[in-house]
Each structure stands twice: as structure tokens, then as C-alpha cells.
TrEMBL record:
This is Lipoprotein.
Length: 188
């Protein structure tokens, strides 16, 4: 059995968990689309990146109106907004400038990567599965707490960040674009 590492491993994990892919483009005329969601921006959209295990959501795109993910009642700003879904307790999505940037899964969310990693996994399990993650100190918790983050990502690539708690286990898994992976306090 071969073991992938670095960006190739992360890409393989994310591709293996994509439950929904946009339909292929066709030459047939497009049918009229539903009205754009409130989160839609007037600027051109970056490339679509489907989110693992979350059908209908894509990084760099607005969260679809009428879907399972709803804007939280209290927001810090109009530029950066958080969303939650009942199907994923202890999880949230970050939307910046109307485009989905990151989804965070916490303990009790039921989320699991195809390689078995999930909130509650040990740091050793994460490092064995993804040895090229970059470690950095946790902003608020004492060592051995830390962040293990995808390195060498292109600006439009999807990466991973594992938040390791002081007990040496994963407290949260962040999946998103590089510009938002390191947002420690979400939109704050």
C-alpha cells in the first residue's frame, strides 16, 4: 500500500469525500436559474471547489438560498458572516464577501474524513496520515496544543487545518481556502 503525502494527500482526501460534483457543462442552452442568494456578489466567481460531505456547497461560491445552512442571527459584520446547519452540530461555515471560505467541524459534529480522521482523533493519527502538515503554536491554549495546517497551497486551493487540543486530540477540523484557514476567531 502506498502512502500519499503533502498537497497530493490532501487533494486525494478532499476528492474522495466530495459527495456532490457540479454537472458537466453542456452545449445545451441553460435554463433560467433561480434568483441568486442574498450572499451573491457582483464580482466574478473564483473556481468552484466542492466541499467534502456537504452536497450543494462549494468554496468560493455563495451558500445556496433555502439550503440547510442558515446565517446565524447575530453577525459581527456584513463582510464576514457565519452559517450553521442542524445536520452538523458544533460546526459552522464562514462566508466572506458573499463567498464560502471555510467550514469548521467540531467534536460531536459526526464529520469524518475518508482516511478516518475526525474531531477526537489523536495528533499522532493526524501526523501519520498527513505527515507534511505544518505545526504552529496554538493562539490561546498551552502546549501541546497546536495547529497542524496544509502548507504550500495555491490561493484557490482547498486545505486542511487540524486544531489540536491540550489533551493531544483534534478539537476541530477546518477545511477551506488558505486565506481563511488561519482565522482563529472565525469572523471576529
Amino acid at each position: 500500500m502506498s502512502r500519499l503525502s503533502g498537497p497530493v494527500a490532501i487533494a486525494a482526501i478532499l476528492l474522495a469525500t466530495a459527495c456532490h460534483q457540479p454537472p458537466p457543462a453542456s452545449d445545451a442552452p441553460a435554463t433560467p436559474a433561480a434568483a441568486p442568494s442574498v450572499e451573491a456578489a457582483a464580482t466574478p466567481a473564483p473556481p468552484v471547489a466542492p466541499i467534502p460531505a456537504l452536497p450543494g456547497l462549494s468554496f468560493g461560491q455563495p451558500i445556496p438560498a433555502g439550503g440547510a445552512w442558515r446565517a446565524d442571527a447575530a453577525q459581527i459584520s456584513d463582510e464576514c458572516r457565519t452559517y450553521t446547519a442542524r445536520a452538523f452540530p458544533r460546526s459552522y461555515a464562514i462566508v466572506i464577501a458573499g463567498r464560502l471560505e471555510r467550514v469548521t467541524f467540531g467534536r460531536g459534529s459526526g464529520f469524518r474524513l475518508p482516511n478516518g480522521l475526525a474531531p477526537g482523533s489523536t495528533e499522532d493519527e493526524v501526523r501519520r496520515a498527513l505527515p507534511d502538515l505544518m505545526a504552529e503554536p496554538h493562539k490561546y491554549a498551552e502546549a501541546p496544543a497546536k495547529y497542524l495546517t496544509s502548507s504550500r497551497l495555491a490561493p484557490d486551493a482547498v486545505g486542511l487545518r487540524f486544531e489540536i487540543d491540550p489533551d493531544g486530540t483534534v478539537g476541530q477540523i477546518h477545511i477551506g481556502l488558505p486565506s481563511s484557514l488561519s482565522l482563529v476567531e472565525g469572523c471576529a
